[in-house]
Amino acid sequence: MQEIIFLLMAFLCAGVVQAQTRQGSNARKNQPEAAWVKHIPTEDLITWRRHIHQHPEVSFEEEQTSKYVEEVLSKLPNVEVIKPAKTSLIGVLKGAKPGRTVAFRADMDALPIQEETGLPYASKEKNVSHACGHDAHTAMLLATAATLSKMQQELKGTVYFIFQHAEEQPPGGAIDIVESGELKGVEAFFGMHVLPNFPAGHVGILPDGAASTAQDIFNLNIIGKGSHGSMPHLGIDPIVVGAAIVSALQTVVSRNVEPGEMTVVTIGKFQSGDAFNVIADRAELAASIRTTSDKTRKQVEQRVKEIIESITKAYGATYELDYINTYPAIQNDKALNAQVRKSAAAILGKEQVFDAPMMTASEDFAYYRKIAPVSFMTLGIGDGPANHNPGFRVDESALQNGVKAQVQLILDYLNK
């Protein structure tokens, strides 16, 4: 997930989840397993995940990954494969009986991060790894497709299995698929993201409404006037201008945004100068901005632009600003969320379903809401480093539960 920041979220809720687990750990021991569970390709699930993990590809370059996924899908009975974008795939499974149309999405791209897990199946690509878990997402959805493909005669309606490119890199791959026109009949979209520091195999229900943040980015070039360090009066110092801008931007959240409205303004880049005794002529700043409502998103953008304009003018500098609106916030549908909770509890037991806090990260899954309501959930993968960390790893025992939850949810939605 793009610049995902799940670690704090995990610490906040881990204690609650563990308590719930202790209270209900034996709840399902005497309940019979669903008959279709035998169709889950357990060994293939791990094989697929490890192959993809060893051969990661960054956003918009997932050529071998999509080829591998296509090979797997093409061998499944009753699944038609279509290509809505260069490196994205959709597997379409039409049930023997008429009914609704539902989609489940997995992202396939990796990150430009050197893996440091020491795993025997670690990435073979230098400075590229699945440090966010998209390999697990892809493998789980392949297993879900394989399971349901064997149940075609019992299936009502149609299932779209979306294997999406480029979630990590704006403008993202979801918008390409949405605009392809291949999803016009879909009535609901579901997605799942693996999350460390929650018990392996536990499904987290994200909030109704805003389930993630919108992310905007700005790149700012401050144009000053270079001078000798001993003669500052002859120059316009872009570092001083930049420092004033950074300080002023800290008031956007504290003094402009309504209290309680989740907003983050982070200046992640500030670069200028090459020598200790030279006043540079330029400074570069870059920032990430997170909001959850359209109103606040517009308000923050306006205020940021006003601050930059006024401060540069006050110091006699000029500027070049590129303000980029990227992914909107995921808006989870209340009714779909309730269905996710019910289905996950039915197949896994209530003790393995928990209320997850809103993600402070951003996700281009939000774009599917342009077509139909959406619901995004999480899957616990055990203790470990956060997503986007070089040491990120997945407890593979969790993946079976992820597949169970996906299959049960799809069946319940279509049978509703």
Overall description:
The protein contains nine helices and 16 strands. It has 416 residues and is α/β, with parallel strands linked by helices. The protein folds into two domains: 7-212 and 329-415, Aminopeptidase; 214-325, Alpha-Beta Plaits (2-Layer Sandwich), CATH 3.30.70.360. The longest helix has 22 residues, at 294-315. Pfam families: M20_dimer, Peptidase_M20. This is Amidohydrolase. Residues 1-19 form the signal peptide. Mn(2+) binds at residues 132, 134, 168, 193, 388.
Mean pLDDT: 94
What sort of overall outline do the alpha carbons produce when their principal axes are compared? elongated
Low-confidence stretches: 3-12, 14-27
Oligomer: single chain
Considering the protein shown, what is the CATH homologous superfamily of the largest domain? Answer: Zn peptidases
CATH architecture assignment name of the largest domain:
3-Layer(aba) Sandwich
Overall structural domain count: 2
Structural class per helix/strand content? alpha/beta
CATH class category label of the largest domain: Alpha Beta
| CATH fold name of the largest domain | Aminopeptidase
If helices are DSSP runs of H or I spanning 4 or more residues, what is the number of helices?
9
Strand order of the largest sheet: 1-2-4-3-5-16-6-15
| Largest sheet, strands/sense/barrel | 8 strands, mixed
What is the CA-atom radius of gyration, in angstroms? 24 Å
Measure the end-to-end span.
31 Å
Strand content: 15-25%
Helix content: 25-40%
Q: What is the β-strand count?
A: 16
Reading the helices and strands in chain order gives HHHEEEHEHEEEEEHEEEHEEHEEH
Organism: Pontibacter lucknowensis
Protein name: Amidohydrolase
Keywords: Hydrolase, Manganese, Metal-binding, Signal
Domain Peptidase M20 dimerisation: 218-314
